[in-house]
Amino acid sequence: MPEARGDRSRLSVVFLPAMLCDDELYRPQLEGLRDLIDPLVLTVAAATMAEAAMTVLRDAPPRFLIVGTSYGGNLALEVVIRAPSRVGGLWLMGCNPGPASDPNAARKRHELVQRGEFDAVVDELAATIVYEHGPHATDVANSFGRMARRTGQTVFLRQNASLLGRADRRTNLAQITCPTLIIWGRKDRLAGVEHGAEMAAKIPRGQLIVLDDCGHLPTLEQPDATVAVVREWLGLLGAIAN
User: Fold this and answer.
1) pLDDT one-digit tens code per residue, 71-113
2) How far, in whole angstroms, is CA 191 from its chain's centroid?
3) C-alpha–C-alpha distance, residues 15 and 86, integer Å
């Protein structure tokens, strides 16, 4: 299991936010798991997924668990595939391990941002990623807007380009040997639950949990349920390690 960077009773965990997101994406989990983890949140924006993975490996502790949502999930996959000996556990949400399912839409957003229509792209993404009938829909959409405007259009352009150019990692899933938790929103419109099911089936120690009334951002849309699932998973990892 990973060693903590500070308190050795806690686990070192690297959190990789979704596109245009920052540590606010994981605030409920940072609070709800603070007795168990020593967190490091990295918002990475590089021209390619390979470069982004090298940034994570440079900044991360020697041994760690890694968490990724959407873009951050693809980046987490890249990290564990490149440096499996450093990753003691993997937690994924809302990522597609294959090529972009709608590259034309992604390219259109890229062009709109380059033309100065960043706010319109943020509004469109917020309306897509959040399940509108979920218990925290308005708050989550507002949270995404705040994060997007903090991170800004340069981060979007780099992250979007790296996602569009990413390698197809479906053939690498069977090589991931660390315990892997996959949490998915049943109402995810950006990355359907079939992507989570595929990863759970192909990763030898993969486990899929699907949350109802939840879209693309489980950590904000179903924060209590997510914390409960992860606490149980971390407890199992601790029992295995001991």
Assistant:
1) 999 999 999 999 999 999 999 999 999 998 889 999 999 999 9
2) 12
3) 15
Q: Which amino acid is located at 81 in the chain? A: I
> Mapping DSSP to helix (H, G, I), strand (E, B) and coil, where does residue 40 land?
strand
Residues 6 or more apart in contact with residue 139 via CB below 8 angstroms = 220
Residue 90 to residue 2: CA distance in whole angstroms:
11
Residue type, 212: D
Two tokens, residue 226: 């997510």
- Cα 116 off chain centre by: 27
Domains, the chain, ordered by start: 11-241 (3.40.50.1820)
Reported as a single tens digit per residue, the pLDDT across 10-63 is 899 999 999 999 999 999 999 999 999 999 999 999 999 999 999 999 999 999
Q: Which residues lie below 8 Å from residue 67, measured CB to CB, with a gap of 6+? A: 13, 14, 15, 16, 26, 76, 91, 92
The neighbouring-strand residues paired with 211 are 185
Q: To the nearest 10°, report the CA torsion of 22, 109, 125, 74.
A: -50
pLDDT digits (tens, 9 = 90+) for 143-165: 999 999 999 999 999 999 999 99
What letters, b where the CB count within 10 A reaches 16 and e where it falls short, cover 226-239? bbebbeebbeebee
* Residues whose CB falls within 8 Å of the CB of residue 179, separated by 6 or more in sequence, listed in order: 88, 89, 90, 205, 207, 233, 236, 237, 240
Q: What is the 3-state secondary structure (H, E, C) of 141-168?
A: HHHHHHHHHHHHHHHHHHHHHHHHCCCC
Nearest to 65 by CA among 12, 125, 116: 12
